[in-house]
Fold this sequence. Notes:
six-stranded mixed beta sheet; 10 helices; FAD/NAD(P)-binding domain; D-Amino Acid Oxidase, Chain A, domain 2; single chain; nine-stranded mixed beta sheet; binds flavin-adenine dinucleotide; globular; 392 residues
Amino acid sequence: MKKNNTADFIIIGGGIIGCSLAYNLANQGAKNIVVLEKGELCSGGTAKSCAITRSHYSIEANVNHAVESVKIFENFDEIVGGDPRFICTGQLVLGPEKHRPVMERVFSTQNKYGSETQTLTPAEAAKLHPLIQFEDVDVIGFESRSGYCDPYLTTTAYAQRAKDLGVIFYTGTPVTGIRRNGKNKTIETNQGDFESPSLILAAGPWTHNLGKMIGVKFPYEISKHKVLTLKIDIPYEKDWPIVKDLLTPEKIYFRPDSGGVVLVGTGDHGDPVNDIEKLTDDVEMEHIERMGKRMAHRMPAFADAKLVRSWTGPYDIPPDWNPVIGPVPELEGVHVAVGFSGHGFKLAPTIGESLAQQILGTNPRVPIDMYDMTRFETGKTLNGAYGIGTFA
Ligand SMILES: Cc1cc2nc3c(=O)[nH]c(=O)nc-3n(C[C@H](O)[C@H](O)[C@H](O)COP(=O)(O)OP(=O)(O)OC[C@H]3O[C@@H](n4cnc5c(N)ncnc54)[C@H](O)[C@@H]3O)c2cc1C
């Protein structure tokens, strides 16, 4: 028999953003919180994530969130509880001369927030990563506190801590309708209706479906991103730094992955996706060959690399490649956190904390007002100095 449930806060979406928010709301004293997830926890974009936690961004707010979030990843067990498997490798950022002014500005912003970034000579960088050739590289930055996590373990750690604090999670529970009922919102699901004055939409690329239920078109598009893992005869060491190669047209990045392999992704737009339900894990041979060439150029030892695995995942991308977070205009008691454009994992600890503070009416420790969705009407968009792409 279907029941009628009430809650003080309902979060739709059990990815890293929904779970971080649930934990942070509860940790800040909120009660009676429900999370509704259509599949399992961490079954959306977060499950496909490379979970890199670097802080090189040309938008200062992103640097602030990335660095403050890294501080949480570094001490996760103490601050939140659990093990996100954070591996601190640092990140090398390789750039051409034309990017020098922006890169140097970002390095100093990173240092202002505590990310410990410096420029290196090729000889110094080679000591950190023995396989890279730097001949065509003009600028090398090294941010020492960056690294990567396990996205599933991080998400479920947040969920577990939220459960410990009383949050109730309903998995296998798709939201199929939202009705406004005075100040309350009635959320329709296969477990019956849920009712709450406060609703938070954190459904990643699926947030458009929820928008249709409340008559709002959220400003983002969806694209397909491809990830490969490659191996050579020697193991790719798990503490070699992450590399961001701004000299490639696709702005590729790569990092160690378990099993002595290297994982490669791109920082470009990706392929447009019209229907997210039709997104598959297929990666075409042309992409694999092109990435193979880019990797062999940067690391000659990869000339005969073998493909181990490939997959794809969805990015939700607003016009300025920055997230949309905060109240939904003209809908009292509805908040949204969407549009993370391929950088939502690393920002999730402080986005969850700050959004919880905003919802509960306190001043966010790390400001989020610049991510408000009204920026597309007021002209205060957050345009990154590198143009489109995940380096916003
Ligand atoms: C290939 C790839 C690589 C990436 N690499 C990085 C990286 O290295 N570093 C980084 O910081 N970020 C990275 N990202 C981005 C980052 O992973 C995402 O921004 C982040 O995981 C988004 O989390 P989310 O909770 O907003 O969305 P999701 O993880 O997609 O969660 C949304 C959840 O909502 C649920 N849902 C949807 N509709 C409904 C409904 N109607 N009812 C109930 N539940 C619903 C979904 O099932 C899903 O579980 C990457 C993303 C991809 C795809």
